[in-house]
Amino acid sequence: MAVFTQGLYMVEPPQCLICRQSRRHLMPASMVRSSIGKLIQANHPDWNDRSYICLDDLNLYRSRFVEEVLAEERGELTNLETDVIRSLKEQEIIAENTNKEIAASMSFGDRLADAMASFGGSWAFLVLFAAGMSVWILYNSLQEPKRQIDPFPFILLNLVLSCLAAVQAPVIMMSQNRQESKDRLRAENDYRVNLKAELEIRHLHSKMDMLLTHQWQRLLEIQQIQTELIQQIAQREDPADP
């Protein structure tokens, strides 16, 4: 804007767009960082490439920009935590209780076979078996021949032992086969859990790398703003500055 004074055109000195005052130290819009310029334009839509801003208002907007960056960083961390909580609620849990799954699919015969195999491989069975044989042999050895149920060589006892061995062998084999199925199911479940854990760790690493890169860019931008402020303070304190 020009004014006519005593036949001469005088150019009006530039004013700060924010405070509308003519200051000594003014910065043109071309010298203001684009990120800060967007913040100024949000509050003052008439901000353009030909506008000026004083250092006091520029420092004020710089401070606001830094505050918004820090608040945004805190918000991003909160959003990340929210995403993790939502994924924990929505995603299906892979880890399963294989014992409950196997118990639900077992029949009465399977449970009976496991119980017999468990009892047949215990010290209680060995003690009872040894005690029963000892009582049987002593009773038939000490009684008179007419009152003996199974005289020497204890043929009835051998028959009972043979039948017991014939029945116990397939029962133990059935229990072992079922134990192999349990081990296979547990191994598959462990593999799924380990695979999911590995994928989650990789995904977490990628998120952390992205977050660190983003924060590094923001910190670098804040450091550049601080450097500009330090340079301006040094210029003000320089006595050679006109």
Structural account:
This protein has helices at 34-43, 55-90, 98-105, 108-120, 123-142, 155-237, and strands at 2-5, 8-11, 26-28, 52-54. The chain is 70% helix and 6% strand. The protein is mainly alpha-helical. A hairpin with a 2-residue loop joins strand 1 (2-5) and strand 2. It is rod-shaped. Mean pLDDT is 76; it is low at 1-9. 5% of the residues are buried. It has 2 domains: 2-91, no CATH class; 98-217. Helix 2 (55-90) runs antiparallel to helix 6 and helix 4 packs across helix 6 (155-237). The chain contains 6 helices and 4 strands. The chain has a two-stranded antiparallel sheet. A two-stranded antiparallel ribbon has the order 3-4.
Brief characterization of the structure:
The protein has 242 residues and is mainly alpha-helical.
Could you outline the blueprint of secondary structure elements for this entry?
Blueprint: E1 2-5, E2 8-11, E3 26-28, H1 34-43, E4 52-54, H2 55-90, H3 98-105, H4 108-120, H5 123-142, H6 155-237
Antiparallel strand pairs: 1-2, 3-4
